[in-house]
Amino acid sequence: MDTGLLLLRLLAGLLIAGHGVQKVSSHLGGRGLAGGAREFRADGFRGGTLTALAAGGGQIGSGALLAAGLLTPLAATGAIGVMTVAVTVKWHNGLWVQNDGYEYPLVLIGTAAALAATGPGAWSLDRALGLTPYPLWWTALVLAAGVGSGLLTRLVLHRAPTPASGPASAPAPAAAPRASAP
Q1: Contact in structure between 16 and 79 (CB atoms under 8 Å)
Q2: pLDDT score for 12
Q3: CA-CA distance, 133 to 157, in Å (whole number)?
Q4: Sign of the C-alpha dihedral computed for residues 162, 164, 49 and 12 taken in this order
Q5: Contact present, 33 and 52 (Cβ < 8 Å)
Q6: Are 31 and 81 in contact (CB under 8 A)?
Q7: At what angle do helices 72-90 and 103-118 cross, to 10 degrees?
Q8: SS (H, E, C) 14-79
Q9: Each residue of 10-40: b (16+ CB within 10 Å) or e?
Q10: Contact 108/15 with Cβ under 8 angstroms?
Q11: What is the pLDDT confidence band of residue 112, given thresholds at 50, 70 and 90?
Q12: Label partner for 101 (CA 20 to 30 A): which of 21, 108, 177, 178?
């Protein structure tokens, strides 16, 4: 079981951290901080650069902590929070990733929740520091705090769509009075 938890932590944690690196730099195929800011603005978020830094930093931090098995409940909460925001962005595309859906962030949410429920395993910094086992009830707290923080982030930082401009949104001209027939 400990080998499985180690593999799961490394895979999910390093992927989450790598995704964060892409948001703030040109490493791992990222488009740099300016590209991350453009991505957030295109998705309708305020404060492109600050939002990219916060999201990237959250992903790098929570992913690195998950991979190391350090402060696992906090790491899982952070991962669930940033992936909840991703789910809200992709929700309108449906579940499946081939349609740019929310399948991948949902898998990472489930993985982080599972690690919060099981703990990081014997080969973790939590175990080496004597921080485990974490009580099972923390899983509910981790899920609630992670999903809640992600939804709050979406609520606070997402702009309301602006009405479309152009002919469809312009008021219709008033009809000319009709001449009456004699």
Answers
A1: yes
A2: 97
A3: 36
A4: positive
A5: yes
A6: no
A7: 160
A8: HHHHHHHHHHHCCHHHCCHHHHHHHHHHHCCECCHHHHHHHHHHHHHHHHHHHHHCCCHHHHHHHH
A9: eebbebbbbbbbbbbbeeeebeebebbbebb
A10: yes
A11: very high
A12: 21
Residue type, position 35, single letter: G
* Amino acid making up residue 94: G
Q: Which amino acid type is present at position 36? A: G
Q: Quick one: which of 11, 108, 89 has its CA closest to 44? A: 89
Residue with tokens 């004699």: 182
Alpha-carbon distance of 96 to 122, in angstroms, equals 34
Q: What six digits make up the tokens of 29?
A: 């195929």
CA angle 21, 27, 33 (to 5 degrees): 60
- Rounded to the nearest 10 degrees, how much is the dihedral formed by the CA atoms of 100, 27, 55, 93? 0
DSSP state at residue 122: S
Tell me how far apart the terminal alpha carbons of the chain are, to the nearest angstrom.
Answer: 94
Mean pLDDT (the chain) is 88
Spatial CA neighbour of 53 closest among 146, 157, 149, 144: 157
